[in-house]
Amino acid sequence: MFFGKLSHGKDFLVVMTAIFINENISLGRVEGIGAVQRARVGYYNHAEREYQYIEFNKPLEITKLFGNVSIKDNKPFVHAHVTLSDDKGNVFGGHLAPGTVIFAFEIILNVFEGPELIRSYDDLTGLPLWHD
Length: 132
Ligand code: ZN
Fold this sequence. Notes:
- The protein is mainly β.
- The chain has one helix spanning about 10-20; strands at about 1-5, 30-45, 50-55, 60-70, 75-85, 90-95, 100-110, 120, 130.
- The radius of gyration is 15 Å and the shape is globular.
- It starts with a strand and ends with a strand.
- Bound molecules: zinc ion (ZN).
- Zinc ion binds near residues 79, 81 and 95.
């Protein structure tokens, strides 16, 4: 289990993915709190089978980020969801997407040993899900 902080001004998914690749972590749980300079989150449209993206071009609090690390395309892949709050206490959230920039972030990471969980295309949902 690790505690740490992520670098100011960097893209969340780029930084987290680099940590997992550099530390050779293929199975884990990630969570944390902090703030973003701006955010981009996805909403999966079931009928269209594609993500719609929502952008927040303003500073927000991260009230919660939770995600997992598994294998996709033969490398560590982080899937995270995030809830964000604004200066009025309104809360938004979604699937963490590239384009979310760190202001400050305190990360807690659990690393697990055991068989890798591998993502592959799922016909029913159109998503890259875990398969046996
Ligand atoms: Zn998601």
